[in-house]
Amino acid sequence: MAQQFTTAPTSSNPYVSKRLNNMEEVSLFKKECNNWTRIYYKLLQDIETMINIQKQVQDIMKLAEETNTTITEMERTILKASNNH
Predict the structure, then answer these.
(1) ∠ CA(52), CA(56), CA(61), 5° rounding?
(2) I need a surface site. Which of 12, 19, 21, 78 has the fewest CB within 10 A?
(3) What are 9-62's pLDDT values in tens digits?
(4) What is the DSSP string of 27-63?
(5) How far, in Å, CA of 13 to CA of 15, rounded?
């Protein structure tokens, strides 16, 4: 993804020795960067959605375990009651 830009001297100051000649290349680079930024934030959003779904599944599994325990206790109570009569 390394791009080379055409440069030309613009100043006698050694710290400011080059400038970009081709603004079209800069525009394309900025557009590509913006696209990657959108992809990054979309990916973060998708990961957050997956985490939320995983939490919901864990909550459902806990409820299922609690329900199973309750049903087992009810079965025991019914069996005890039927054995006593």
Answers:
(1) 145
(2) 12
(3) 555 655 544 555 567 777 888 999 999 999 999 999 999 999 999 999 999 999
(4) HHHHHHHHHHHHHHHHHHHHHHHHHHHHHHHHHHHHH
(5) 5
Q: How far apart are CA 46 and CA 39, in angstroms?
A: 10
For 15, 55, 60, 67, 69, the CA distances from 63, given in Å and listed in that order, are: 67, 12, 5, 6, 10
Which tokens belong to 80? 């005890």
The closest alpha carbon to 34, from 44, 42, 23, belongs to 42
**CB within 8 Å of 71: residues ≥ 6 apart:** none
pTM, whole model, 2 decimals? 0.54
Triad 30, 13, 8: Cα angle to 5°: 45
**3-state DSSP assignment of residue 17:** coil
Residue type, 52: N
